[in-house]
Q: What sequence folds into this?
């Protein structure tokens, strides 16, 4: 029976006898009698979707996805393909984690609540901020939520949100949609050689600014060296300082709390998820002062009837199912299972493993930049900055031609300018980098 | 397993149930941080804490690095046990029936995890179109499947959850009205009994939310709707069947009324599992809808997410959908294979996710639909509706509104619905959604889905009925057999402790 059932839903266990008995119990001749749908809107057609056995379905998906070319990706810019330890998959795939709902009955959900509480604690340690939620969808939507949070908690009538001119356009566009229903407007401030142009930002900042956003590392892989000064500029006009980062970078780079960040956003799934076509995990941490304005779910500690420590979703009066149009956000379903994966991955690495991974992101990226800089027709890095995980290289040939040639040799790189490619070392083994250098030598001259 | 030393059993013999419970030093399973905390000092400077910690050098100057990182450092076997124990303290669909109304907690077919984990699915979103034809083809075919199932002309897969889909619908409506020089429309009408996200998504889009009462039979009150509609109406958001499980019989008239004032009709797909193959939102007059794939198409809820909330629209709204979408090129490849490409709709609202949404969830959605096909999908709805009707017939609680479809809302009457739910946990079943919708006093909103057998439904009904006949003291003392006993919500909110650092500060 298993895998060969093609009539009806293979996951509905009713026998013909059951069906008859149940119909009798509800006093209906056929199941169609139970549908109260006026004839005018009834659908009598077919979707024309063939049913398949489990085996055929697997073959179908394998065959469709088999059209993807296998290649070594030196790709980053906000989505990374780190190696995921086997333990993460095996534990997270336990069906109690995978198949449970949001923890509205905490007495039977202690395990997931504790895992999310530990995830929140991980982010508290990494950011130095007191509050982290259970997740937003991804880095871009977390940035959108940061802007609406800033709008809610800031007293003045200001309406300007400042973002760096160099960031993923997709993030900027998502932010624009999140603030479309408010008075906020998004404006870009200048960047100098890959990091914030402090003088330019100073000129842009005034009393109307609600939030200043900066990233560390930046979309071009540079490490921001003036975070504290950026935080000061924001603080001077009582604006929010929102910092974009991720758990691996935060293991080594400056702690957001130490540079005056009011909120930290970013993609936490750099730990926990393999390359997943952009699926992520929105990191969201902020100061305790804003606790009651935080979007999304929060797990807190309480006690049960035996006075033992227990976990529960808390401060739910912020949320849409209670507060409706006055909720702090419309978010309901989040990325809880990805947060679990991230927490497990971080636990497997431990603090020494996380710091080591971050250190390698610096040393390996900078070593690759040196190697490709030796290639005729390539200069790297373009920016005179320290780098994390990735960097931009100048190519004398048109960048799109170089990328196309590299693709034929089995390597994917970003094209970020007419003569600029961007290379990321995250998750790429050393021997693959060796092969890449050879390939680039071949195509760049 | 019971740690209080007694074998007292107050539940009927046929439904003994004890959830895993670990107790150490008077507490349940310790936190990772209580098992170990190791501090790694970074860089050359001695932070004065070097005795019990470790120090590591840094490739970066000190002013670019943090001082230290303090987290648990545990071995792999210790972690395997930690998380296995945590998993045993969770009730999932594979643990037993999960009739949470409005949540459609179906069985999640295991093979969908396998196809999502295929190495060929692990591609970066910045790859060239030519090198990821497989991913684009899957997205294209899923857009097409969903369009057929919903009766919609165009679909975006980008929204990462149902609420995000609602927000896309609202933004698309805003862009459409703006494009037609009708940006003044600032009302979104939402029935009183709708999901909380409807109100919140409309508000996030900057709209004034107009709340619509139900009529005496639990459906949209046409007179109230007439009064609410105006030239300022941007959209009406509706679930059909509604949260009481009732089909909005006047849907065609409702659609005409909304369209007559120039508004759009939005379909909240939360209850689509009731209608597969029997009615389609597009045929009912809806202009825009979202699909909850973790409900209708059985992708796992994962303890709260990830989901995906694709949005379908009629032709006139297609130019406003988020970018990019995927289409098939007119010209096939040299070998005759179809070629897929991304494109930007003409008046797109832009992005609502940093990349293209929750890809792994979309793969599972595609696999589920491809597995079931027409027959399976139609049977899913038929069996879901049969199950809800049968279960309702077997329980003692009153059900004030009908005829319902995939879910029903019973009333706990004199009992407190939240207490009923806690007591049901002792019978080894997940309780229904409680206290909502408010139109039913002490609501027990129940949706068994198609995956339960008659035997399981009988067991579920026995649990309802056992609790219906118990006294308030018993209900208030519940649950007894779960990992944790009744948890104090007030204390958690009054004294928020949201991290192990906060707990440490307290002690």
A:
């Amino acid at each position: 029976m298993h895998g060969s059932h093609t009539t009806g839903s293979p996951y509905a266990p009713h026998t013909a006898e059951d069906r008859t008995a149940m119909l009798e119990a509800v006093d209906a001749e056929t199941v169609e009698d139970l549908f109260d749908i006026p004839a005018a809107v009834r659908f009598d057609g077919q979707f024309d979707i063939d049913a398949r056995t489990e085996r055929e379905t697997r073959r179908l998906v394998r065959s469709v996805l088999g059209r993807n070319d296998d290649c070594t990706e030196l790709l980053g810019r906000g989505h990374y393909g780190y190696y995921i330890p086997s333990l993460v998959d095996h534990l997270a795939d336990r069906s109690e984690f995978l198949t449970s709902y949001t923890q509205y009955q905490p007495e039977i959900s202690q395990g997931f609540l504790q895992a999310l509480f530990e995830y929140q604690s991980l982010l508290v340690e990494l950011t130095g901020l007191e509050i982290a939620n259970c997740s937003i969808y991804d880095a871009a939507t977390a940035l959108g939520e940061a802007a609406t949070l800033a709008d809610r908690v800031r007293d003045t009538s200001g309406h300007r949100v400042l973002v760096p001119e160099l960031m993923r356009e997709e993030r900027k566009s998502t932010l624009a949609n999140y603030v479309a229903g408010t008075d906020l407007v998004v404006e870009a401030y200048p960047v100098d050689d890959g990091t914030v142009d402090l003088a330019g930002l100073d000129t842009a900042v005034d009393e109307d600014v609600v939030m200043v956003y900066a990233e560390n590392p930046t979309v071009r892989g540079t490490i921001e060296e003036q975070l504290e000064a950026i935080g000061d500029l924001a603080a001077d006009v009582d604006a929010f300082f929102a910092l974009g980062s991720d758990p691996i970078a935060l293991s080594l780079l400056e702690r957001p709390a130490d540079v005056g960040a009011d909120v930290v956003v970013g993609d936490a799934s750099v730990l926990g998820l393999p390359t997943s076509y952009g699926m992520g995990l929105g990191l969201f941490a902020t100061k305790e002062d804003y606790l009651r304005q935080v979007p999304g779910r929060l797990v807190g500690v309480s006690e049960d009837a035996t006075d033992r420590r227990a976990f529960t979703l808390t401060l739910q009066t912020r949320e849409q199912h209670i507060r409706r149009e006055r909720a702090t956000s419309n978010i309901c379903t989040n990325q809880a299972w990805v947060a679990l994966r991230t927490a497990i991955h971080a636990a497997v690495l431990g603090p020494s493993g996380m710091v080591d991974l971050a250190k390698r992101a610096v040393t390996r990226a900078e070593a690759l930049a040196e190697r490709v800089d030796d290639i005729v027709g390539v200069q790297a890095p373009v920016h005179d900055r320290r780098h994390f995980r990735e960097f931009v290289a100048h190519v004398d040939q048109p960048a799109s031609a170089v990328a196309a040639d590299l693709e034929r040799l089995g390597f994917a790189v970003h094209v970020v300018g007419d003569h600029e490619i961007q290379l990321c070392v995250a998750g790429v083994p050393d021997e693959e980098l060796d092969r890449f250098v050879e390939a680039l030598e071949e195509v760049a001259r | 397993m019971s740690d209080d030393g007694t074998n007292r059993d107050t539940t009927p013999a046929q439904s003994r149930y004890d959830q895993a419970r670990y107790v150490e030093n008077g507490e349940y399973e310790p936190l990772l941080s209580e098992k170990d905390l190791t501090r790694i000092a970074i860089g050359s400077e001695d932070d004065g804490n070097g005795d019990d910690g470790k120090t590591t050098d840094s490739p970066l100057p000190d002013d670019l690095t943090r001082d230290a990182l303090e987290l648990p450092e545990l071995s792999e076997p210790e972690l395997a046990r930690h998380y296995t124990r945590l998993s045993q303290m969770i009730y999932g669909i594979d643990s037993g029936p999960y009739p949470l109304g409005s949540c459609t907690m179906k069985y999640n077919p295991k093979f969908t995890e396998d196809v999502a984990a295929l190495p060929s699915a692990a591609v970066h979103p910045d790859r060239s179109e030519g090198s990821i034809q497989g991913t684009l083809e899957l997205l294209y075919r899923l857009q097409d499947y969903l369009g057929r199932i919903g009766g919609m002309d165009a679909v975006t897969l980008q929204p990462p959850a149902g609420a995000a889909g609602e927000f896309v619908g609202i933004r698309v409506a805003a862009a459409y009205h703006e494009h037609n020089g009708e940006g003044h429309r600032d009302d979104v009408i939402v029935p009183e009994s709708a999901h909380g996200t409807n109100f919140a998504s409309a508000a996030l889009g900057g709209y004034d939310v107009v709340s619509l009462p139900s009529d005496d039979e639990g459906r949209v009150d046409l007179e109230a709707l007439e009064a609410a509609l105006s030239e300022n109406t941007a959209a009406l958001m509706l679930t059909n069947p509604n949260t009481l499980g009732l089909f909005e019989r006047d849907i065609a008239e409702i659609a005409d009324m909304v369209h007559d004032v120039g508004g759009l009709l939005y379909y909240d797909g939360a209850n689509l599992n009731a209608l597969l193959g029997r009615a389609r939102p597009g045929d009912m007059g809806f202009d825009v809808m979202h699909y909850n794939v973790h409900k209708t198409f059985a992708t796992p809820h994962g303890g709260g997410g990830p989901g995906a909330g694709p949005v379908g629209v009629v032709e006139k709204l297609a130019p406003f959908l988020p970018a990019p979408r995927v289409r098939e090129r007119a010209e096939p490849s040299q070998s005759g294979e179809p070629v897929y490409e991304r494109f930007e709709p003409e008046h797109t609202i832009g992005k609502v996710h940093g990349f293209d949404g929750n890809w792994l969830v979309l793969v599972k959605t595609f696999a589920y639909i491809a597995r079931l096909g027409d027959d399976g999908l139609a049977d899913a709805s038929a069996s879901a509706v049969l199950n809800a009707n049968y279960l309702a017939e077997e329980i003692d609680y009153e059900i004030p509104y009908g005829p319902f479809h995939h879910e029903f809302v019973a009333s706990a009457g004199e009992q407190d619905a939240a207490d009923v739910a806690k007591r049901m946990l002792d019978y080894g079943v997940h309780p229904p959604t409680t206290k909502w919708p408010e139109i039913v006093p002490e609501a027990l909103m129940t949706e068994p889905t198609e995956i339960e057998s008659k035997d399981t439904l009988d067991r579920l009904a026995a649990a309802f009925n056992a609790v219906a006949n118990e006294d308030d003291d018993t209900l208030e003392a519940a649950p007894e057999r779960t990992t944790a006993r009744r948890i104090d919500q007030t204390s958690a909110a009054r004294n928020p402790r949201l991290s192990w650092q906060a707990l440490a500060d307290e002690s």
User: Anything to note?
Assistant: Chain A is about 35% helix and 15% strand. Chain A touches chain B through 187 residues (CB under 8 Å).
